[in-house]
Amino acid sequence: MNVRRAYVVLLALACGCGPGSRGASDAGIGDGAIPDADVGAGQFGAACTSHFECVENFCVEPIGGAGGVCSRQCNDDCPTGFDCLPAAFPQGAISLCIPASGRLCAPCAVDAECPGDVCLTLDGEGACATACAVPTDCPTGYTCAVDETSVHAGSFCQPVTGSCSCSAEMAGAMRSCSNASALGTCWGTQACDAAGWSACSAATAAAETCDGVDNDCNFVIDNGVGGGEACTTTNGFGACPGVRLCSGPTGFACQGQVPMAEMCNAVDDNCNGTTDEGYAGLGDVCSAGVGACLRYGSVRCDAGGTGVTCGAVAAAPSAEMCNRLDDDCNGGVDEAFTTLGAQCSAGTGVCTRYGSFVCMALGADVECSATPGAPQGSDTCNYLDDDCDGVLDNGFRDVTTGFYDTDTHCGACGNSCEAVFAGAPNAAGACVMAGTPRCGLRCSAGYTDLNAATQDGCEFLLDTAAIYVSGSDVTAVDDTSCGLGPTSTGVGNHPCRTIGQGLARASVTGRARVRVADATYSEAVMLLDGISLLGGYRADTWERHLASTSTVIQGVSSTGVHDRTVIASAITAATVLEGFVIRGSANGKVGGNSYAIHVSGRVGRAGDPQQPDLQRPRRAGRGRRLGAERRGRARRGGLPGDDLRRVQGERLARLVRLDQQPLGVRRRRPLVRHG
After folding, report:
1. What mean pLDDT value characterizes the chain?
2. Quick check: 525 and 575 in contact, CB under 8 A?
3. 3-class SS at 47?
4. Are 356 and 342 in contact (CB under 8 A)?
5. Measuring CA to CA, how many Å separate 595 from each of 547, 580, 634?
6. 90, 167, 427, 532: which is deepest, by most CB within 10 A?
7. Is residue 562 classed exposed, middle or buried when 0-12, 13-18 and 19+ CB atoms within 10 A define those classes?
């Protein structure tokens, strides 16, 4: 049986201490209190290996050694299972609660030599005994009996033979023993067998070292081992001062703050001498709420310590009243009273007298401050109700709305919208109701004013045979109804977002063209037979600018070895690709090529009536071959019969017909410059 060391008898004698407090059921030999797993870390009774793990900085070992336990100072007030015993420290003895351990049959002369127990006279010799209630409270070889000398009241665990001598009746019994030296007394046990009491298992006290063990058997782990020197803990966040102290089994360590990333917590976490640096505005005045709910506070650290927050709490809003205050705290003052401050009148026509709407006395509503006058005669178009019959300018305005809303009298008598916009292309002047009447354009059927410029009228003509694609329009969506026109060109009209969806929609709807607005389209595009792909349109007005097109098709990585940006496969009908900047992908796959335009399928020679041809790129409307862009060297690869072209970063603001001259005629001169 492995029993660890403890120091008890000499200390108890030196201070003259009597038995500590311990329950009667604590009898046993070397069965010191085991740390309670339910006790919080560092609390009394919790397991420990160094003083710094304990709230009160005392880590002790019981008699016989049973592992470190967090303790506290005492004055005979220890709980059940603990003895109040003196422990030696450099500054002097301190009484601590030490886990109780039975000392049955340990030699003694007085009770003080049996801390927590009593000293009985057994077979003419003094021996320590532990209080008990029933025989089962005692270990093997012992029974629960009264003190035959009647010196001590109650019952105690005593040898069944009445003697601490080893005999056949005591076989298997254990008794306490000790090993004393100049450095202390360590306790252990002896077993009774056929040869008598076995050797004492107590260790020999040694000089205390920093190792998490009570080497000198004085109950206290690592006491008096030195330390206390200044030290520094350094890491990537900074350097913090500390004190070199014993940390138990791991030896000496620098105890103190460990540098960490600065948080917002009123602590100098990185030990650079500054607290909460980097949290701008901390401590500044801030506010929460608006109007009557406005409250002020200061900027402080948030709960997580990772940022700042305003400490102010807005007040609760109330129902809005007409009182020049923002009662409901929504940022508006008296907004429920929409006519407040507006001009008002009393009477009609020339009988009208003007004032303004003001708050009523109790703030429940508004009222007009004016008083009406007398009538003047019949009406003329003079913005007056001369006869005061309640109808202004009879015959000159809409009596239902009250507005001058005709094209020739828009908002005012004689204000002709037809005259204002005379000659506007694809449009005519019209009186537009937008809250109040104003002159605007009325577009001819099929036209839309996208650029909001009146000088060119309604410049946009919707192509009903085309699908529209825009990668930069926030209203663009790839859905089953997209592409019928740009947004605002018809009910429900919105562009598709990707070229692939635009081509799919053109195929489904039977439209022959896909018009694409300026944007970068990161996708592989598969051309469809007979459906032209036209780029170079401004994203806002859909005006075309081929020479400076910014409609980019950017190649992407594919699952195969080779990457292809624009793919024309088996094109047999007239198909136009025009107005794009086409870039091949950055292909990093082993053996892989990157093709900006990949044309494949059976292509015939020019003039062969039995085989459709492919035409080289030509500038729009001029039919000239590319000049400077035809440098470099063509590469051929991929599947048998394919005609592959590598293209990267070239502007194709020109017509490409895919139904005439074959691309494969001159294989040594590529279609466009190799990237």
Report:
1. 80
2. no
3. strand
4. yes
5. 23, 15, 11
6. 532
7. buried
Q: CA–CA separation, 625 vs 614, rounded Å? A: 14
Residue type, 194: A
> For residue 185, what are the β-bridge partners?
180
User: Cα(77)–Cα(541) distance, rounded to whole angstroms?
Assistant: 91
- Nearest Cα to Cα of residue 221 among 243, 248, 252, 244: 248
Using CA atoms, how far apart are residues 443 and 421, in angstroms rounded to an integer? Answer: 11
Distances (CA, A) of 445 to 53, 194, 281, 426: 86, 122, 59, 8
Separation between Cα atoms, residue 529 and residue 506, nearest integer Å: 11
Burial class (CB in 10 A: 0-12, 13-18, 19+), 622: exposed
pLDDT, tens digit, 9 for 90 and up, residues 148-205? 988 999 999 999 988 898 888 888 888 888 888 888 888 888 888 888 888 888 888 8
Alpha-carbon distance of 590 to 203, in angstroms, equals: 72
Could you tell me the two tokens for 564?
């292809």
- Please give the DSSP secondary-structure letter assigned to residue 33: P
Q: Are 88 and 220 in contact (CB under 8 A)?
A: yes
Note whether 173 and 157 are within 8 A (CB): no
In whole angstroms, give the CA distance from residue 565 to residue 644: 11
To 5 degrees, how large is the angle CA 416–CA 420–CA 421?
Answer: 120
* pLDDT in the model for residue 121: 92
Contacts of 501 (CB under 8 A, 6+ apart): 469, 478, 482, 483
- Please state the φ and ψ torsions of residue 431, each to the nearest 5 degrees: -85, 115
Asked if 450 and 540 touch (Cβ cutoff 8 Å), the reply is yes
